[in-house]
């Protein structure tokens, strides 16, 4: 592998527009050299932004780095370019599986199977996902192309319902920047830490009690329909509040490096996960 | 409040000239009382200002507790419009009521400029 990496690196240096970055990035990823793989994939993606395989490669590296939100974006982009891209379908199935959405995982695997009916990994993963058997991820839910995607952490068996602690499972910042509260400000899931690493979950929750009702009253008074979100910009960070259901309140906190628009996307995804969790626990 | 009353009208003009803005207000953050307003007919200024001030207080406390610092701008989004607010260091809220398709970035800039005028 080391020789091949050397050869491909040399080829890429000679011809930066070459597609060998795909193979090189994948080999580096498999070797666990994620930072270099990340650089190779990103450079390749800049030169080939409409190549679905480039987005797929980048997504796999991001997934290995536990950056699941951006991995989701990249696989989603690959599918927008090539709706039958098997690697992206498997990748999204893997991410859905991670958050416990077996139905969506199976739907993506079914689409992958239609695109690649002879892929034994897809068939096996699909069978296991449908049956709820253990080991579905190792069998191919997380695989991309012909090579298995290393599952970065243990994944719940398919038939097992979401655990309470996993309300934001798979989402970036689940234990430091995402919080789900009920109408009284009681914590339902997630956690919050300030920039010094201190747990501030309870304090923030207490201040936010009643915000959902007040936001609802304000927009009602203005005849603006239902409130859908509250984005706030601070000196040191940004926050986004959203109502996943009528009474509950979701809080997402990120530092100022995360633009407000991106924060809104993160909040949408977290709200979806929270809604599913709330419905499952109703 | 450090600016003369004439400056309030100028500050509100900055905001209401943006397309899609239905009105603007200057509100005392402490008690939710309207200091100055330019609102389209039908908008209940005093009630909205009271709720906006209350929301601003809760948000400020929550943001400080979360370690993200003081609130510089916030944006309450709804199905058919939005409320956009910039708190000033002197304790005034510069508030805009807007249509759903308003240019939020532009309103934010004008709110910040108005906040400088108001002080």
The CA-CA distance between the termini of chain B, in Å, is 7 Å
Q: Portion of residues in helices of chain B?
A: 40-55%
State the separation between the terminal residues of chain A, measured CA to CA. Answer: 52 Å
Reading side by side through the largest sheet of chain B, how are the strands ordered? Answer: 2-1-5-4-3
> Major sheet of chain B, described briefly?
5 strands, antiparallel
CATH topology name of chain B, in short, is Beta-Lactamase
> What's the main sheet of chain A like?
5 strands, antiparallel
Specify the CATH architecture of chain B.
Answer: 2-Layer Sandwich
Alpha plus pi helix count of chain B = 3
Segments of chain A where pLDDT lies below 50 for 5+ residues? 133-165
**Tertiary shape of chain A:** globular
Order of helices and strands of chain B: HEEHEEEH
Q: Report the average pLDDT across residues of chain B.
A: 92
Overall spatial form of chain B = globular
Q: Kindly name the structural category of chain B.
A: alpha+beta
> How many helical stretches of chain A?
12
Text of the CATH class of the largest domain in chain A = Mainly Alpha
Structural domain count of chain A: 2
How many strand segments of chain A?
A: 5
The whole-angstrom Rg of chain B is 13 Å
State the order of secondary-structure elements of chain A, H for helix, E for strand.
Answer: HHHHHHHHHEEHHEEEH
């Amino acid at each position: 592998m080391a020789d091949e990496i050397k050869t491909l690196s040399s080829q890429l240096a000679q011809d930066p527009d070459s597609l060998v970055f795909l193979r090189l990035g994948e080999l580096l990823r498999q070797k666990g050299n994620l930072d270099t793989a990340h650089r190779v994939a990103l450079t390749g993606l800049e030169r080939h932004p409409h190549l679905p395989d480039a987005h797929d490669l980048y997504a796999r590296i991001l997934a290995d780095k536990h950056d699941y939100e951006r991995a989701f974006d990249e696989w989603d982009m690959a599918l927008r370019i090539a709706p039958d891209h098997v690697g992206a379908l498997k990748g999204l199935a893997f991410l859905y599986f991670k958050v416990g959405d077996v139905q969506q995982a199976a739907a993506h695997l079914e689409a992958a199977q239609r695109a690649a009916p002879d892929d034994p990994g897809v068939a096996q993963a699909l069978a296991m996902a449908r049956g709820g058997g253990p080991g579905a991820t190792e069998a191919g839910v997380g695989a991309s192309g012909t090579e298995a995607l290393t599952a970065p952490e243990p994944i719940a068996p398919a038939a097992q319902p979401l655990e309470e602690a996993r309300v934001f499972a798979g989402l970036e910042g689940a234990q430091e920047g995402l919080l789900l509260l009920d109408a009284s400000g009681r914590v339902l899931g997630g956690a919050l830490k300030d920039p010094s690493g201190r747990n501030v979950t309870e304090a923030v929750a207490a201040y936010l009690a009643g915000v959902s009702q007040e936001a609802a009253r304000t927009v009602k008074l203005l005849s603006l329909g239902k409130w859908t979100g509250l984005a706030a910009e601070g000196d040191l960070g940004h926050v986004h509040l959203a109502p996943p259901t009528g009474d509950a309140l979701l809080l997402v906190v990120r530092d100022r490096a995360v633009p407000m628009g991106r924060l809104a996307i993160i909040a949408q995804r977290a709200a979806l996960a929270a809604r599913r969790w709330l419905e499952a626990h109703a | 409040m450090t600016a003369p009353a004439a400056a309030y009208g100028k500050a509100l003009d900055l905001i209401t000239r943006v397309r899609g803005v239905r009105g603007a207000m200057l509100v005392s953050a402490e008690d939710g009382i309207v200091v100055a307003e330019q609102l389209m007919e039908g908008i209940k200024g005093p009630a909205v200002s009271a709720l906006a001030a209350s929301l601003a207080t809760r948000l400020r406390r929550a943001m400080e507790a979360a370690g993200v610092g003081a609130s510089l701008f916030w944006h309450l989004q709804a199905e058919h419009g939005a409320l956009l607010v910039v708190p000033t260091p002197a304790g005034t809220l510069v508030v805009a009521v807007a249509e759903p398709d308003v240019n939020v970035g532009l309103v934010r800039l004008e709110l910040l400029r108005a906040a400088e005028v108001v002080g």
